[in-house]
């Protein structure tokens, strides 16, 4: 199982950064959306 995870990470290394950036963008949008009613 560990070998499968290592192989997957090695094969998808180029897209991991893109996925992390996308996840961070979603979190920022969620937090902004939750705080927006308090700002208006």
Task: Describe the protein's architecture and organization.
The protein has one domain (1-38). Helix content is 92%, strand content 0%. It contains two helices and no strands. The chain is rod-shaped and about 50 Å long.
Derived from helix and strand composition plus strand pairing, the structural class reads mainly alpha
What order do the SSEs take from the amino end to the carboxyl end, as H and E? HH
Distance between the termini: 50 Å
Rough shape?
Answer: rod-shaped
Helix content: over 70%
| Gyration radius, in Å | 16 Å
Tally of contiguous helical segments? 2
Number of strands: 0
Keywords:
about 90% helix; about 0% strand; about 40 residues; 2 helices; single chain; mainly alpha
Topology diagram in text:
Elements: H1 2-11, H2 13-39
The gist of it:
The chain crosses the membrane at residues 20-39. With 40 residues, this protein is mainly α.
């Amino acid at each position: 199982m560990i070998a499968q995870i290592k192989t997957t990470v090695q094969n998808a290394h180029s897209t991991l950064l893109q996925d992390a950036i996308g996840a961070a963008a979603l979190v920022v949008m969620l937090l902004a959306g939750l705080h927006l009613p308090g700002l208006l």
